[in-house]
Design a protein that fits this description.
This protein is an alpha/beta fold. The chain has eleven helices and eight strands. GO terms for molecular function: carbonate dehydratase activity; zinc ion binding.
Length: 254
């Protein structure tokens, strides 16, 4: 708390006046362009590595950047993740939903351990909210990953905006990342399928009026990857790939 209070005082001196001007600029007409789902990991600062500012996008964070599939909710049961989809996509009419996973994700490290029946037992889930969360909403990612773990050079099939629109992904073809990071990439792509499960988004997704994207952040290098459906893999976003990725986005997701 000492550090947070000192930070607030520094903010008052250095940044407050600028931020107030930005707040005033967007106060009456905020026009966010995206909703950004990412992990609650303290090392993830999405507004910094995307250079976005006040009013640019909604941000939802949780353990493992999970968006629960709609099948988990009946009657009035829900969670903040689908509520965020409604607020952004329905009420505010944004056009882009972005899911961003990352390397060395503690939630994904634990999810991989939950392949053990002992670790994922009912008793364990009752005493650990995190294990319960991951077993309930991350098991589809884990199962998909375990099906191909011994043969990752082969593509994995995912559903996209509609059940008929599918894409394939080659996970870490250069074999640069550890097994848990590979799971993290699969999990990030699985969330696109989960997002598309919500009926409130169906019409917009079918008429290509709403687009879903996957990013992946390498904590230790600072590199950010974009999942390219044309390349069927996560591509690093850098000087050599930027124009290629931008052309794909403009052609298919504008």
């Amino acid at each position: 708390m000492d550090r947070i209070l000192r930070g607030i005082m520094r903010y008052r001196v250095l940044d407050r006046a600028t931020m107030v001007k930005q707040f005033q600029h967007v106060r009456d007409n905020p026009v966010p362009k995206a909703i950004f789902y990412t992990c609650m990991d303290s090392r993830m600062i999405p507004t910094r590595f995307t250079e976005t500012s006040v009013g640019d996008m909604f941000v939802v964070r949780n353990a493992g950047n999970l968006i629960p599939h709609s099948q988990h909710f009946v009657d009035e049961m829900t969670s903040c993740e689908p509520a965020g989809l409604e607020l952004s996509c329905i009420i505010n009419d944004i056009k882009h939903v972005i899911v961003c996973g990352h390397s060395d994700c503690k939630a994904m490290n634990l999810l991989y351990k939950l392949k053990s029946e002992e670790e994922s037992s009912l008793e364990q889930r009752r005493i650990s909210p995190l294990k319960s969360w991951l077993c309930t909403h991350g098991k589809s990612s884990l199962n998909k990953f375990l099906e191909v773990k011994e043969n990752l050079e082969k593509p994995i099939l995912f559903s996209a905006e509609t059940p008929q629109r599918k894409f394939v992904a080659y996970i870490d073809p250069e074999n640069k990342f550890c097994i848990e990071d590979k799971l993290s990439q699969v999990n990030t792509l699985q969330q696109l399928q989960n997002i598309a499960s919500y009926g409130m988004l169906k019409k917009r997704l079918e008429r290509h009026d709403l687009h879903i994207h996957a990013l992946w952040f390498d904590i230790y290098t600072g590199d950010i990857y974009y999942f390219s459906r044309r390349a069927k893999r996560f591509l690093i976003i850098d000087e050599s790939s930027y124009e290629i990725i931008l052309a794909e986005v403009r052609r298919y997701y504008s």
